[in-house]
């Protein structure tokens, strides 16, 4: 079968023919992948930016951690799944032994492995995943929408970390798929939301089509002016989803006293903070990475609603056969798309 693989600690990826995975072992299920999304983390791995060296000892392996498909087989001891079921998966697999895992915090396990970042993932026709990490898709949710579950769970977790309440003034920096999901979910929770990007017409237009009420292109205005025009005051929460280090200090400049800034982007550069100013303003700096068990049922419930599903589906701008994956990666790098789905079954 064709697979998109990371084979060396250098820029690029390889489209290779590989053997399908072995039959699922105890506690595992086999999945025929119908759709898999290209994520910002995949782009970082493709570009081989600093911070992804952890992948090197595990190479070669198949990329892809945002995927959905249909069960082909179940291993011994698996209950609740049967061949043909439409499923998606949380790709973060904890060791099962540490304190974090025992407390249900897979994302905090220091020995965790992630399908598509440490071991074979979903940029192939077939993948094997722990049944305990798989979720059956609700009626009406197809595999394309199922492939959005993982990035939407990331967005949900960021909103949780920010502790957003109804009426909060929330600034989201970065209109990529994660930023779009964060802005949309914050708005669903009753927040007043401004989504800001820089010279990113395609994705800001997508935000408006999704029903995100306020957007700003910082190529034509300053962040302070955009915030003042939208809210008339500094914001309660800033959620950064740019991966551009300077946006963190810019976000702090428009954050009210005792406000919260959450970093979700992966940054290749260090950050110098005005610590004294931060302390005097009582600014809280937090980080959100990966997701949690609690996010998944919330995301699946949102997608089960046809109106919500229709809005979120607008993020999917391109669908490509897996063999055109390298072209999809280049499109994503250039920001010529919002969310690109690769489809192994399209030849």
Automatic annotation (TrEMBL):
PANTHER family: L-THREONINE 3-DEHYDROGENASE. It holds the Pfam family Glu_dehyd_C. GO terms for molecular function: oxidoreductase activity, acting on the CH-OH group of donors, NAD or NADP as acceptor; zinc ion binding. Keywords: Metal-binding, Oxidoreductase, Zinc. Signal peptide: none annotated. Residues 1-24 are annotated as: Disordered. InterPro entries: ADH-like_N, ADH_Zn_CS, ER, Glu_dehyd_C, GroES-like_sf, NAD(P)-bd_dom_sf, Zn_alcohol_dh. This is Sorbitol dehydrogenase. It comes from Teichococcus aestuarii. Its cofactor is Zn(2+). It comes from the Bacteria. Residues 8-342 form the Enoyl reductase (ER) domain.
């Amino acid at each position: 079968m064709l697979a998109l693989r990371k084979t060396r600690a250098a820029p690029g990826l390889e489209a290779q023919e590989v053997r399908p995975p072995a039959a699922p072992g105890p506690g595992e299920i086999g999945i025929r992948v119908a759709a898999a999304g290209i994520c910002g983390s995949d782009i970082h791995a493709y570009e081989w930016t600093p911070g992804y060296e952890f992948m090197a000892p595990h190479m070669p392996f198949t990329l892809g951690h945002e995927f959905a498909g249909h069960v082909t087989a179940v291993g011994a001891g698996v209950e609740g799944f049967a061949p043909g079921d439409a499923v998606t998966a949380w790709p973060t697999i904890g060791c099962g032994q540490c304190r974090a895992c025992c407390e249900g915090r897979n994302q905090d396990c220091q020995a965790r492995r992630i399908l598509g970042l440490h071991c074979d993932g979903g940029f192939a026709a077939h993948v094997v995943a722990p049944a305990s990490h798989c979720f059956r898709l609700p009626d009406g949710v197809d595999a394309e929408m199922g492939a959005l579950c993982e990035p939407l769970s990331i967005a949900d977790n960021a909103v949780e970390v920010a502790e957003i309440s109804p009426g909060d003034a929330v600034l989201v920096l970065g209109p990529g798929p994660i930023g779009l999901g964060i802005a949309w979910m914050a708005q669903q929770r009753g927040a007043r939301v401004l989504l800001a990007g820089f010279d990113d017409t395609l994705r800001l237009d997508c935000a408006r089509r999704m029903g995100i009420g306020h957007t700003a292109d910082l190529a034509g205005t300053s962040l302070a002016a955009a915030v003042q025009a939208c809210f008339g005051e500094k914001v309660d929460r800033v959620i950064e989803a740019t991966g551009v280090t300077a946006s963190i200090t810019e976000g702090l400049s428009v954050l009210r006293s005792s406000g919260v800034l959450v970093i979700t982007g992966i940054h290749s550069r260090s950050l110098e903070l005005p610590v004294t100013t931060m302390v005097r303003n009582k600014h809280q700096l937090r980080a959100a990475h990966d997701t949690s068990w609690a996010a998944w049922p919330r995301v699946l419930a949102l997608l089960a609603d046809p109106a919500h599903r229709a809005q979120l589906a607008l993020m999917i701008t391109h669908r490509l056969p897996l063999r055109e994956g390298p072209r999809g990666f280049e499109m994503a790098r250039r920001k010529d798309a919002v969310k690109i789905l690769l489809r192994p079954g399209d030849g």
